[in-house]
Amino acid sequence: MTTEPWPTEIRLLDNGRTLRLAYDDGASFTLSAELLRVRSPSAEVQGHSPADQKTVGGKRNVSIISVAPVGNYAIRLGFDDMHATGLYTWRYLRHLGETAPESFAAYLTELSTKGLDRDRPGEA
């Protein structure tokens, strides 16, 4: 039976601008609030199918204002733009940590393609 890495530390840094995660296998990641917000696992952002996925602009300065446990498998992050519907599972957070540079680069490309930017609110 394979067990997945378990988070041993979840800490807000920089006045909620970053989230630090450490795991029992020694891995650690520091994720920006912006990346966590624009890659929220919520239906509002992800939609109900890949075709429904939203690209959200204007989140360069977003901050995390709350971290709440959800059972023993996830956390709910609350952002200062009042978004608080995504459940970030341990698996999803680990994935974001491992792919953060690629995911953020893809986000920047999506913004550019859709005529959005990191500073003006909007979604497409």
TrEMBL record:
Pfam families: GBBH-like_N
InterPro entries xrefs: GBBH-like_N, GBBH-like_N_sf
Domain Gamma-butyrobetaine hydroxylase-like N-terminal: residue ranges: 10-94
GO-annotated molecular function: metal ion binding
Coiled-coil boundaries: none
Keywords linked to the UniProt accession: Iron, Metal-binding
Protein name (database record): Gamma-butyrobetaine hydroxylase-like N-terminal domain-containing protein
Native source species: Methylocystis echinoides
